[in-house]
UniProtKB/TrEMBL annotation:
Keywords: Amino-acid biosynthesis, Cytoplasm, NADP, Oxidoreductase, Proline biosynthesis. This is Pyrroline-5-carboxylate reductase. Residues 161-258 form the Pyrroline-5-carboxylate reductase dimerisation domain. NCBIfam families: proC. It comes from Fodinibius salsisoli. Catalyzes the reduction of 1-pyrroline-5-carboxylate (PCA) to L-proline. It is found in: Cytoplasm. Pfam families: F420_oxidored, P5CR_dimer.
Amino acid sequence: MKNVAILGGGNLGTALAQGLARTEEAASKYKVTVTRRTPDHIRHLEDKGITVTDDNTEAVKGADLLIIAVQPAQIEGLIEEIKPAIDPQKHIIASTMAGVKSEDIAKLTGSGVRILRVMPNTAAAINQAMTCIEKTPHKEAEKEVIALFDTLGETLVINSELMEASTVLGACGIAFFLRYIRAASQGGIEVGFHAEEAQLIASQTALGASALLLESNSHPEQEIDKVTTPKGCTIAGLNEMEHNGLSSALIKGIKLSCDMIENIR
């Protein structure tokens, strides 16, 4: 069993811990410790067999794999705190921080520890995450990190220069898709459904649309064509949305989010 320390029990760190404790497959492979300055805020994780502590150094000493899930501005202080406990022969560091390169962390540790970036999303809590993993020369470490995140959903190994883009499309993307579902639910209320009914229909329909693409490996337009008929209500609605900038607004939002990552730290 691998010992995993998640340093930073915020929303993402908590989601990762929950996912690793949620299935028998993950729970049988990984023993998880989560750290937070105020551990009482995540004390509920103990009910799932997860260790909760405010001692980063002790968590590192007992771990094989370190997942850094703090805010980028906190990285220097965190590394300074745990640096004496890092063992380059033992530890692998997987960083979830947007805008912080592996080279930046390597300079701070100064120890030659194996480091790679990962970008999961909060759907890890239910083992439905999309995680992009940085391609690295440390192939054995890469395999171990892939194996862990495979238990939390889908993984994709990408080049380092795409990590910022993956942050926007995958991690920020959770919020983008949720905003669409919220808007669709509001539209459903306007045409006659109660709020909970509209949200159920919108959510399950979004899930179904995603499953269609993942199962069939088809292009979105192929599936769209199957539900649009001449002079029909679907094409009328799609065209109205496009006239009001649906696709353009999404693309612009993704590009702007990506541009802003460079100024995070």
